[in-house]
Structures are given as C-alpha cells and as structure tokens.
Amino acid sequence: MDRTYLDKGLLLPPTRIGARGVLVIGLIVAAACLTGCATMKKNHQRDVDFAQFSRWLPGTYDNTAQVKADLQKGVRHPHDTVELAVIPTESIEVGADSFYLQETAADNSLRVLSQRVVVFKETEKGFVEMIYSLNEPMRWRDGPHEPDMFEGLTTRDLKVANGCELIWNRVQTDTDKHAKKLTKEEAKKADETARYEGKNDRKRCQMTSHAVMGLVEVELRGELSSKELALAELQYDSDGHLLQGSSDEPFYRFHKIR
Q1: What's the sign of the alpha-carbon dihedral 254, 123, 126, 47?
Q2: Most buried one in 28, 214, 216, 254, CB count within 10 A?
Q3: Domain contains 145
Q4: What is the span of the domain harbouring residue 238?
C-alpha cells in the first residue's frame, strides 16, 4: 500500500513524481551545482592572482632603460630618471596588504620626489587600491633602508585620497579565454607572463594642483608584471584639458633591479 502523510490531522494522498518531474529537478540541481562550482573556481583564481600580485609588487625599481630610449628617439620631453622603492609595511593596524612607495631621483637618493602608502583589498570587481598620503612624510623617508619602522605605522599617520582608488585585474590572454587544460610547463609560462592593469575613475578623483592653484581631475593608471611596474598620473582642468603628464607616453616604466 502506498504511504500517506498527515497534514493537520488529515490524510493526504501520496505524491507521485513522474519521469518529467525527476528530469526537471535533476536539471535544477545540476544548474545550481554548475553555478556554485563556477563561482568557487572564479574565487579561487582571484585568490591565486591576488597572492601573485602581492608577491610581485615589492622591490626596488628604476626607469633608466626608458630614459635611455627617450634620448635615443630624441623625445622632446624625456622622462625624469627615477628610482622607486615598494616596501611591505607589515603593519598590523594598517593591514597585511599595505605598501609604502617612495620615489627618489635616481642620481640623488636624498631628493625624495613622492611618498605614499597604498592598501589593497580583494573584491569581486578586482583588487581595490586605496591611496594614502602621510601626515609626517619626513618621519618615513629612511624607510627604504629601515623597513622595520613601518611596523609602527597606524591609521592616524595616514590621510586617504577619497575617490581616487584604482581597481586592478589580471589581463585576460588568449589562453585564459579558451580555458584549455594546460600542462605544468604551460601553466608556469602563463604565470610568468601574466600582467595586471589598474585604473581609477578620474571624474571622482580630485586633488589640489599648484599649476592652476585649485582642484584638478586626476587619472591614475598602473601596469604590473613579474619584473616591471608602470605608473601614470595625468591631471586635467575642468574643461578636460591635459595639464600635467604626457598623452603620448603617460607611464613611468620601471624595471625591477632588486
């Protein structure tokens, strides 16, 4: 005899699920599994990419090769020769994925050109880079030679550049798009040639400029590979005219030297 069920004291007739119903339920379950698996795979790949990005970023860079190329090509306004240090802060309060960046003249390490702290956060949109200025920049100038000092860095030492955050993502290649199964050698080569790009929304990023004695829109862009880091900053007036930076080659292209 078929089984019956009680509902509020009443006997209910048994429910039969036909072959079509079983098929529909199976398809729904399969679709849910596929969606969940795809999401897990995407999240895992983002974790792997973020670990690689964070491992590649620190180091000491210079752009001497770029400057030499500028001079050989007879560029009217060649890039300045700059050395860039990128140092993990190891600050518990500021965050594990925070870095101190300091630019100096390549021929004079005492001439500091810029200082800032950047903090990265992994999100579904990509790696969000928040930019901070230092309230007491002179205090941290010896950081490239004494990196342990950044362990004492706190949020009170920083001032955020609101609206200027960059979003970084791994650049999709033909290999990524076809998503074929790679051999170990192919996967290793793909990782070594990976590249990341970041950019901000210049309409949301405004900073004070001495060029116009007021606020300007600032476009920030970046590129990162295993041995190279490129950074660009372009400033525009309210009419969209370029005030600072080169439209021909906006990037300072740094090569990792150690």
Answers
A1: positive
A2: 254
A3: no
A4: 44-82+116-135+156-256
